[in-house]
Design brief:
By secondary structure, the protein is an alpha+beta fold. The chain folds into 2 domains: about 1-30; about 35-155, PCu(A)C copper chaperone (Immunoglobulin-like, Sandwich). It contains 2 helices and 10 strands. It has helices at about 1-25, 35-40, and strands at about 40-50, 55-65, 70-75, 80-90, 95-100, 105, 110-115, 120-125, 135-140, 145-155. Strands 1, 2, 3, 4, 5, 6, 7, 8, 9 and 10 form a 10-stranded mixed sheet that branches. The longest helix has 25 residues, at about 1-25. The radius of gyration is 22 Å and the shape is globular. The model is unreliable at about 15-25 and about 165-180 (pLDDT under 50). The structure holds copper (II) ion.
Length: about 180
């Protein structure tokens, strides 16, 4: 009898807890959020072949969660450092790249496409040539401190004449997305 009572009490407690769980799921309380590393997927990733110096990686980062995800940093064994770059248009109309303030913000169930002429993952200080067909690991660090490592294939991109290698500025010409 006491067993049954206790079981009923436990069931009631479990039912009472349900509304709290629903509330927690729909809030932005990061304490209850799943790690960003479990919620983010990366597709179509590739790195521009380069003899040395700098290069850039591209792809589509998708946030599969109900919460906003930020990408705040990156690293790769291929280069001294990684920066999360954006392209801005200066007052004189020319374009240049720079680290994106605060990194990349991806809304719930949205994707961010990194592509030539737009946001890209910048490799600075390549340790060696990035050869076409080889693979390079890239680790992205999220705002909640978790990280995810994926592998990007090095690809030749002759259609893109903008210079990721020396000047720090991209060409002003729009560039087509790979495969477009
Ligand atoms: Cu850049």
């Amino acid at each position: 009898m006491s067993l049954t009572t206790s079981r009923l009490a436990r069931t009631a407690a479990a039912l009472a807890a349900v509304p709290f769980l629903l509330v927690a799921c729909s809030s932005n309380d990061s304490a209850t959020a799943a790690p960003a590393s479990d919620q983010v997927s990366i597709a179509d990733q590739w790195v521009k072949a380069a003899p040395g110096g700098m290069s850039a990686a591209f792809g589509t980062i998708t946030n599969n969660s109900d919460q906003t995800v930020t990408v705040v940093a990156g690293s790769s064994p291929a280069s001294s450092s990684i920066e999360l770059h954006e392209i801005i248009t200066k007052a004189d109309g020319t374009k240049m790249m720079q680290p994106k303030p605060g990194g990349y913000t991806i809304a719930p169930h949205a994707s961010l496409t990194l592509k030539p002429g737009a946001d890209h993952i910048m490799f600075i200080g390549l340790h060696q040539e990035l050869r076409t067909g080889s693979d390079t690991p890239i680790t992205l660090v999220f705002g909640d401190g978790t990280s995810k490592t994926f592998t990007a294939r090095v690809r030749d991109f002759p259609g893109n004449q903008e210079d990721y290698g020396t000047g720090g500025e991209h060409g002003a010409q729009p560039t087509p997305a790979p495969g477009a």
